[in-house]
């Protein structure tokens, strides 16, 4: 199972953004919505072997984390508005706050809010704890090329991806301390969702080679 | 200058789709909107050396073609709704129909409707004529891998990309007759916008190698 963590430095942790203006009212949550599509969907299907974390670092309720599980997700549509509606509905479930205040639901800090979607109060440290033992990579411009990273493509790979602001220094430091390896994707700095497409392409190729 | 042609078999050629439900009312025009972003934008910038054609094959006014020029585009935002608003405004300009009925505007069949955006009545044959001499590629599952395609990455490369339905047989036949080479991207069939991200990554790498 491959996992992606999208770090939204300012992305709205509450559901108070406007669907008609997600970039302006959601702290560029739109970037993260597009990353959900790129990480979880392929042509006419959902990747079942993927988990996506959206770290929502903006607004009064931050940090909160949404977790999408491909194995359990249903009706995940590719268009940005549909994913925005899903996220908005998940975030306005105030009972999650209450459940977490009571010490979290059974089975960990993530409370189910939709099929295959869980919500937790917390950010990077919560995510790192949830990941457990895994091979961590963080996307970083100028880092060694993913095509040369011979270990890449293992079953427990985790990829940390920054939003339009990239990964902030504190996150980088925490990830380095957790053993994350920086990898680069190529000579041009691309949008986060395009980075995920390029990552998947490399991983899919290696999976196919292994048979 | 690289060019991308996105073939929307059912995508709405009129502006009558709803921004709140582009997939359902626009003949999956949403796929094409996302392709505009993937083809034209990188992190914090517009690729100036790109032209994107959207072939709109659905609805009573079809076929029509929108052409986006990176060199002249302004304020192209990455979120799907913003690109949808731009396309909707461009398509409702009825004067284009009238100009075309008079024999087209000066400078070819594309009438300017926004900075860097032109609209024409016509589909594949119009696009092929507009492309002139160029190296044509069409994305095709199972075709030879783009990484092995030594000629790929030339300055006049054109990439034909299908929508969620792929490229239809008639389009494939026309492209083959025009000399288009089929290329594959990898073992998994991905969304059109992800295919464009993978294509750009390969082309960017080759550009960087050539220096």
Task: Tell me what the structure shows.
The structure is a homodimer of 211-residue chains. Chain A is built from seven helices and ten strands. The first copy, chain A, has 211 residues and is α/β, with parallel strands linked by helices. Chain A has a single domain, classed as Alpha/beta knot. The first copy, chain A, has an eight-stranded mixed β-sheet, with helices on both faces. In chain A, strands 2-3 form a two-stranded antiparallel ribbon. The relative contact order of chain A is 0.17. The model of chain A has no long low-confidence stretch (mean pLDDT 93).
- Strand percentage of chain A: 25-35%
Q: Specify the oligomeric state.
A: homodimer
State the major sheet of chain A.
8 strands, mixed
Rounded to the nearest angstrom, the distance between the terminal CA atoms of chain A is: 16 Å
Structure class of chain A: alpha/beta
Number of beta strands of chain A: 10
Helix fraction of chain A by DSSP (H/I, runs of at least 4): 25-40%
* Net shape of chain A: globular
Interface with most residues = A-B, 37 and 37 residues
Report the total helices of chain A. Answer: 7
CATH architectural grouping of chain A:
3-Layer(aba) Sandwich
User: How many domains make up the 3D coordinates of chain A?
Assistant: 1
Instruction: Sketch the topology of chain A as an H/E string, one letter per element.
Output: EHHEEEEHHEEHEEHEH
* Main CATH class of chain A: Alpha Beta
Main sheet: strand order of chain A = 6-7-5-4-1-9-8-10
Q: How would you name the CATH homologous superfamily of chain A?
A: SPOUT methyltransferase, trefoil knot domain
CATH topology of chain A: Alpha/beta knot
What is the average per-residue confidence, as pLDDT of chain A, rounded to a whole number?
Answer: 93
Low-confidence sequence ranges of chain A: none
Write down the Rg of chain A: 16 Å
